[in-house]
Amino acid sequence: MIHALVLCLAIQASAVQTADQHQEAGIAALKAARNSEAIVEFKKVIELDPADAPGYYGLGVAYMQSADYGAAISPLKKALELDSTLTVVHLPLGYALLGQGYASEAITHLQKANDKAGLGIAQLETGDLPNAVQNLQAAVAARPKDPDMIYYLARATGLLSKQLYDMLEAAYPNSPRANLAAAENYAALRQQEEAEAHYKAALKQKPDLPGAHLALGVFYATASKWPEAEEEFREAAKQQPGNAEAAYRLGAALLQDGKANDARVELERANRLLPDMPETLVSLGKAESMENNSAAAEKAWSRVIELEKTGPLASQAHFGLAGIYRKQGKVEATAREMKLYQEAKQPVSQPQ
Amino acid sequence: MFRKLLIPVLLMSTAPSAPTFDVGTPKGIDFVLEHSPTPKKYLIETMGGGVALLDYNNDGLLDVFFVNGGKITSEMPLPLSFDRNNPKYWNRLYRQNKDGSFTDVTAAAGLSKTGDGNYGMGVAVGDYDNDGYPDIYVTNYGKNILYHNNGNGTFTDVTAKAGVEAGGWSESAGWFDYDNDGYLDLFVTRYMEWDPAHNKDCGGYFHTYCPPAEYPMTTNILYHNNRDGTFTDVSKASGIAKKSRSLGVAFNDYDNDGYADIMVANDAVQEFLFHNNGNGTFTEVGLDAGVGFTDNGSPVSGMGVDFRDYDNDGLPDIVITDLARQVYVLFHNDGNGMFSYRSMETGLGVLTAGSSGWGMRLEDFDNDGWKDLFVVQSHVMDNVDQVTPSIHYLQPPLLAFNRQGRFEAGDVGTSRPLAYRGAAFGDIDNDGWVDVMTTAFDQHPLLFKNRGGSAHWLTISLRGTRSNRDGYGARVHVNGQSQYANAGGSYLSSSDKRVHFGLGGAKTADVEILWPSGIHQVLKGVQADQILEVREPEKP
User: Which residues of chain A neighbour B297 with C-beta distances below 8 Å?
Assistant: First the structure.
């Protein structure tokens, strides 16, 4: 950002016919990151010519580059006061104000600078969460490896979610959705009894509440209450026969109970609804294997490792394949899959 | 005679022949398992609690031996003491009286000396010198102790002479005759390299017992019986000295080659299956046999283990207890040297998903001819309820009836949750129905006394002549069922050495015994409902 600002400043400076040695020296110092020297030079510029907007701009940028955001605000504002057409000032001024906590004031400048990242952060600070989420999503799309942007987007979406839940519970405290929201909150807080009570209350009020059976099923499965989970997933699958997740989860619950044939039917259905989900294919391979359908299991697990080369699902698939080949007496294939299993289960390095 | 402490036993609600247990502490037993939990969360605090059922005085009644922990303080100054000379921390031997009550004979039997510096863990019982009296091997954090049964109601510490103190942190141990020379050898599992000075803080805010991976692995030990009261450590020469974190051990001959194999339950690393090569060496075949990991390729926190035929196909299968969310592991013996993971197909996936299990055994509790599963349960972490509210530290035991290969929940007789650890199995009152003696931290032991039913049964007491005196390693087939004679398995515990069969409606049984010596003995038309002593023929 700073490099771009310096470039703009250079253009401005060259356009001003009265630009003197101090201006040029200031720009040179900025480019070389000799910030203290730049500050001195730009101060001399505005001392010699108090109406020189680029001089104030240069001084502001020099302060910004020195991370002295508080000192940057005044010269940047003066630059705009002197020349409202000097639009490059809006970006550093917006960040300077944001850095000092003046988020509301920063928004105007960041909007004029069309900077989604800064604008999203400023909106997050002022509580304008819907717009913050929108702008931060755009910023993350432009800078997908920026941990700061990912953090701010996560924070904004979390706060927006909480805000909406609070609104739901305040406006419709006894509604099925409010109960469902409360259940999910309690579940997140690991308060099991309260969560279960709210899930059941929601379903009592509205037995066909979309998503509720699925959510309760996941809650039960997480608590290892598989018979209860199976019942909820069955209801969810009945309500939404086109929901691949419901079919997958029902299949997984049936698998947990050793009902391989029933599990296979649901997992095949899940795979038709949403093909090539590795989780579905791993479980489908298990169901086939439990029914001694080695060829079908091999097909499912082979597809998994086409889709995922590393991680727990890939390692499970390789381990399953090794088991098939071992029983078939295929020594080399077994050894190969065991090696790949070991490699696949290694921790995946984090994105930089 | 039977002092009830707990909730009255519920009546059977499913099959009328299903047994339930009367649950309580037998009269005369005042032992309390002292584990001394401290804020420092020393891992040994949560791992002990072995129990043995044995007839030490050969009066035909099972007696009970309990292993105690010891006193632990937060500071644990060196040298370690554990205050084992204090009677509160003694191990205890209780002799069963004819009326079913028990008498504490610990001091009279010479078992009060547990060795300062030893924190008790488990027990293994076997007649290592073939004198007809069961000897007791106690495992410790510290040095293990072998007590020789003098045959007159007393025991002598012969550890030094025998050379079996092991050292470090021993867990489950078991007697078996791996070379079929007629003398019992000894396998000792060891957990990890740990000492109080290197104890770690784990769990952050919650401050929990550390996961095993925080401490270095160690090796198990195999002692070969020299037949003269001494033993030789053959761990390296035999090939069993692979490093791991072992907690449970069970024996059986999974490939029917006549030599005892070893299944070792390891904590959070690959399980071990040591195939006996028949020449004094073993090969670890866990991965090749399909018992190293679950079907996900994941290790479990293996604790208790049993090695018995659950589906009556004549081949021993493997069950391993572990921690909640892992599901107890059942490996089915496919008969070609390989096993298949069948926890889900057998119903254990649903029955045990939230359970953490320690002492356990496949045994026919309702005498219907199918071995059921009994597991004493509790999580390893005493504050797991805070960390993960859907998992519980205190749990009631699990009784799962075997319905032709699929397990269904049974009524164990109590819903009271405790921090159970040890479990020994045997017919305490010789009524033909298998009972369970259990231990739990800070509690008197609970006996799960089988109330019985109408089905028939046969219990066989083996007496080896060419084989070891206990007949350990004999493969016994009765009416399509099979049993392997051995008191080991479970967790830290030793069970009644007699082999038990439920016969269902059959009033007679055909018995076939394959002794470790190779002698094949057949008994036709044996009358049901008796305890039958079978002596090994002197000649083939």
Answer: 315-316, 318-320, 341, 345
